[in-house]
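Customer escalation, tier 2.

The customer says the design service returned an amino acid string that "doesn't look like it belongs to this structure." They asked us to rerun it and document both sides in this ticket. The original structure tokens are below, unchanged.
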């Protein structure tokens, strides 16, 4: 049983090496300092790996720590950095996301599939006030950063508490996401949370400038315009060779779920827990399950990009209607 299990793990590693053009046997000989015969005995399971060999193999091939110890199971290992500590700054929250996106940007044939209950994070980054407003809410309510306690919102509220690097990081994140092909699933309620947040902070007098709510609503309107155009042409702004597919998810309730794939193979899954914080895993079975879930989600969704012109017009018209309602409540009706 153990021999078959070890052999099955090396079969997975063989597939990984084949796709990356790596000679597994020669590499294993170097990593373990063994001759070819000894390596073949480990590959076919006739010689069981010891702990030192497992560690060396996992370190060299950058395998997850559970690669040789997990079996098909309902127990899925996730990473969640918030258990160790909450971010002390917004830049501290953005830095791991930045590092991961920079790594993905260097890989060939990478794509992202993103189901979201509100506008995906990276789209906000096109508008400064809207971006910093979302940061302000999360810093005050989710991460409970001391600087934001009992403070009203203004762009300077965020900038004065952050390293000067925040603008640079936001810009790099926006460009990195724009350079990666993506498929996104939006519901018709995608604006509701942000509109309600703007209303709440306006009604509780939490803007230093009373006209800030108007600025934020107008930036949401501009964002809707930009996203409709992106869906219409089927590529990301400034990256004509980067495909963008948008679906209207009409029936399935989703949290924020992101699947990263390379060469058509699912490699990482991210799921929001207390938004905007994400759990992540590269556990193969779960990533494959997530791909199948997205396939089912697509069957019940309406395609809005390029050829889906009628459905696209209808969808974005409804978003604008909801924005108009929000403006009316705030006293900014056209």
């Amino acid at each position: 049983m153990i021999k078959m299990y070890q052999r099955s793990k090396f079969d997975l590693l063989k597939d990984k090496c084949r796709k990356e053009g790596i000679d597994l046997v020669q590499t294993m000989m170097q990593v373990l300092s063994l001759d070819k015969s000894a390596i073949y005995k480990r590959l076919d399971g006739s010689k069981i790996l010891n702990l030192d060999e497992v560690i060396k193999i996992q370190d060299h091939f950058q395998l997850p720590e559970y690669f040789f110890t997990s079996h098909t199971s309902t127990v899925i290992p996730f990473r969640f950095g918030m258990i160790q500590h909450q971010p002390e700054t917004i830049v501290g929250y953005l830095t791991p996301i930045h590092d991961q996106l920079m790594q993905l940007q260097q890989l060939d044939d990478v794509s992202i599939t993103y189901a979201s209950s509100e506008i995906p994070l990276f789209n906000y980054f096109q508008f400064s006030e809207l971006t910093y407003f979302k940061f302000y809410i999360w810093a005050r309510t989710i991460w409970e950063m001391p600087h934001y306690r009992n403070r009203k919102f203004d762009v300077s509220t965020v900038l004065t508490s952050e390293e000067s690097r925040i603008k640079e990081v936001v810009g790099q994140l926006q460009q990195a996401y724009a350079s990666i092909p993506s498929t996104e699933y939006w519901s018709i309620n995608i604006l509701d949370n942000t509109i309600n947040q703007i209303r709440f902070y306006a009604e509780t007098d939490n803007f230093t400038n009373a006209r800030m709510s108007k600025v934020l609503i107008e930036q949401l309107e501009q964002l809707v315009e930009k996203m409709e155009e992106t869906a219409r042409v089927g590529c990301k702004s400034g990256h004509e060779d980067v495909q963008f597919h948008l679906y209207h998810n009409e029936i399935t309730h989703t949290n924020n779920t992101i699947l990263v794939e390379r060469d058509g193979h699912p490699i990482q899954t991210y799921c929001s827990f207390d938004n905007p914080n994400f759990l992540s895993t590269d556990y193969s079975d779960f990533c494959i399950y997530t791909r199948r879930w997205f396939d089912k989600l697509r069957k019940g969704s309406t395609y809005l990009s390029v050829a889906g012109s009628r459905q696209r017009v209808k969808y974005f018209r409804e978003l604008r209607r909801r924005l108009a309602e929000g403006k009316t409540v705030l006293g900014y009706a056209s």
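Tier 2 assessment: The sequence is consistent with the input. The chain has 13 helices and eight strands. The mean pLDDT is 88. Sent an explanation to the customer and offered a walkthrough call.
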